Amino acid sequence: MTTEEAIETIKSTIANVKWNNPLDYSIAFETAIEALEKQIPRKPIKSEREIRYCEVWNCPGCGFEFSGRVLNHCYSCGQALEWGEDEC
User: Fold this and answer.
1) What pTM did the predictor assign?
2) Tens digit of pLDDT for each residue in 39-48?
3) DSSP string, 26-84
């Protein structure tokens, strides 16, 4: 099962199952979805700024600013980062 399939399965479970204590399960499932979504790599956003002639990038999840292209995950929120050929 892919991460995307897991997210869809959890969302459909939330919508289709009646829980005895829906608030607790709903919060747990929403937290799981947020964590899974951060594992899907997203392209960083190139900033207009430069720091000492280095490119500056922003996390697509939280906006955290960093320079260079060495991160696989955001230090701030944990979002997986995907560097395409044009960014390297």
Assistant:
1) 0.71
2) 999 999 988 8
3) HHHHHHHHHHHHHTS-BPPEEEEEEETTEEEEE-TTT--EEESS--SB-TTT--BB---
